[in-house]
Amino acid sequence: MERRERYDPEDIESLLSERSFDELLDEERDFVLRHLSGREEYEQMRALLHYVRPDEGMRAPIEADDRVRSNVMAVFRAQQRPQWQIWLNSLAAWLKPEAPSGFYRPALAFGTVALLIVAGVFAVRQFSRNPENATLAEVHDVKSLAKEESQPPATGDTNGTERNERAAVAEPQAALESESTGAVREENVVRTDAVADFDLDQSSSSSSAGEAAKLPPVPGAPAVEDLAAAQDEDMVTKFTPATTTTSSTAAPSTGHVVTMNELAKNESRANVSDVVVSSGSKRKRSTTKEIADEKAGLDITVSRSMAQDPALLGLISSGW
Amino acid sequence: MALFGTEYGKLGDERLMELVVRGDERAFAALYDRYHRRLLNYFHRMLWNDREKAQDFLQDLFTKLASRPQSYDPTRSFQTWLFSVANNMCKNAYRHEVVVREAAVHFKNGVDREEATHGVEVDREHFRDRLDEELDKLDPDHKATFVMRFHEDMPIKEIALAFGCSEGTVKSRIFYTLKKLAERMKEFNPNALIPHGTARAIRP
Fold first, then answer.
1. Judging by beta carbons within 10 Å of its beta carbon (0-12, 13-18, 19+), is residue B21 exposed, middle or buried?
2. DSSP chain A
């Protein structure tokens, strides 16, 4: 029967550490001799092993320099630093390089950005000057003016035309002034509507229509000159009742002249319907634009240019 | 639990590494203070007693630890893991410099052997030099095993974990390293080195 081995070859280390060759048991000696040549080799190994360990104790351990510790701790701190700080540090290093030759990078980058901005502005300006875009803008203006002209014109009666124009000029200004006090204005309009059907003289003096109704009707022709001379809206408003009275009795023409009553009725209806009011406000605003254009010397409508023609005005005056 | 002052010194390696992963600078400093001397001497042994190189390797090792503390496997012993990293670094160093070192060792070996044969008594300093020379001639794994076992006094089990091999392999390496060294250092009289009856217990 084969004898079972109690030791492994690597266990010789423990035997070397604990016992000399003479101190080994027979079993242990047999085991050692199966792996080593004999006593001499065993003793040499044992001496070496025993000499190595005390030798290590005698060796003074070397110490690391302090710079190693500081370097390692600096690395650890840098690793734990928030990333945005690293990013800012790199940005600062990029913007302020130590070597002067390193400035070419930020300079090149900023120059490129500036060039792109200039090119972008130039491109936008060129695009805005495109003839197609300009045409579109003009067409839009013309359409709005055409809408204005499509409103009830005053073609039959020149005086009426003039008066309507003046009234139209005055109306938006008054409307703009009274927009902030719209509620008050609507109240006045209702009152005007009520009074204008019966007695214009008894209408309220607080409203513009009421003030106009207070004035006595002006007989005769000088309405046009007076209207032309009237520069402010108060004057225009004063003459409005007279013109409406006259216009209401005048012969019918191809156009339609809005009388004071109609105006008052329309406004009173406008109070009932929001739609009318909104359209009226649109008209007032666009008329304001007309005023601005007129002040700028733009001849945008035919009727206005006729009204400004002195010869035509003289002819109309003589007719009166 | 609040951590103040000396409490870091009482914490285990693995607990300190958990804190290091969270960015605790004092835990990292505690680990450095705990292991830097052993690792420096290990590198010194492994890297041909080159002190500057040993310090560079020590710094590199802790720099790696600071940069990637997540690379540590918490299931392993920190000491084992640390020495396995150190051993791999030494292996890489051997691959680069073994040719140059071999030439230098051969030259020095001839001179020393001649001096040893002429010497009547063996002193310990001479023995240390000879031992270092013979260790440098060994395979890096055998040398590292020998250094860990007899210089760092590491248990067989931890050496096996550091190398990723069995305990039997470690014991076998130690046995054959001792046998080879004893054969190469025959000129030293064992009786002069060790007094009889001074057996010393070793860690399993």
1. middle
2. -PPPP---GGGHHHHHHH--TTTS-HHHHHHHHHHSSSHHHHHHHHHHHHHHHHHHHHSPPP---HHHHHHHHHHHHHHHS-HHHHHHHHHHHHHS-SSGGGGHHHHHHHHHHHHHHHHHHHHHHHHHT-HHHHHHHHHHHHHHHHHHHTS----S-HHHHHHHHHHHHHHHHHHHHHHTTHHHHHHHHHHHHHHHTT-GGGS-SSSHHHHHHHSPP--SSTHHHHHHH--SHHHHHHHHHHHHHHHHHSPP-SS-PPPHHHHHHHHHHHHH-HHHHHHHHHHHHHHHHHHHHHHTT----HHHHHHT-HHHHHHHHHH-
Between A289 and A238, the higher pLDDT residue? A289
Mean pLDDT of the A223-243 span: 48
Q: What angle do CA B178, B77, B172 make, to 5 degrees?
A: 20
Per-residue confidence at A317, pLDDT binned at 50, 70, 90?
confident
Residues B175, A63: C-beta atoms closer than 8 Å: no
Region of residue A197 (left: phi > 0; alpha: psi -120 to 50; beta: else): alpha
Global model pTM greater than 0.80: no
With bands split at pLDDT 50, 70 and 90, how would you rate the model's confidence at A118?
Answer: very high
Q: Which residue has the higher pLDDT, B122 or A14?
A: A14
| Euclidean distance between CA atoms B56 and B156, whole angstroms | 28
Residue A98 burial (CB count, 10 A): 7
- A64 neighbourhood in chain B, CB within 8 Å: 36-37, 40, 55, 58
Separation of first and last alpha carbons in chain A: 157
User: Is A13's CB within 8 Å of B200's CB?
Assistant: no
- Residue A279, pLDDT above cutoff 50: no
pLDDT at position A282 = 47
Q: Which of A206, A226, A222 is nearest to A214 (CA)?
A: A206
Residues of B in contact with A34 (CB under 8 A): none
Question: So what's the ipTM on this one?
Answer: 0.74
* Mean pLDDT for back-to-back runs of 10 residues, chain B (204 residues): 63 90 90 92 87 92 91 88 90 74 56 46 71 85 88 86 87 86 75 46 49
Average pLDDT over residues A35-60: 76
Distance from the A83 Cα atom to the nearest Cα atom in chain B, whole angstroms: 14
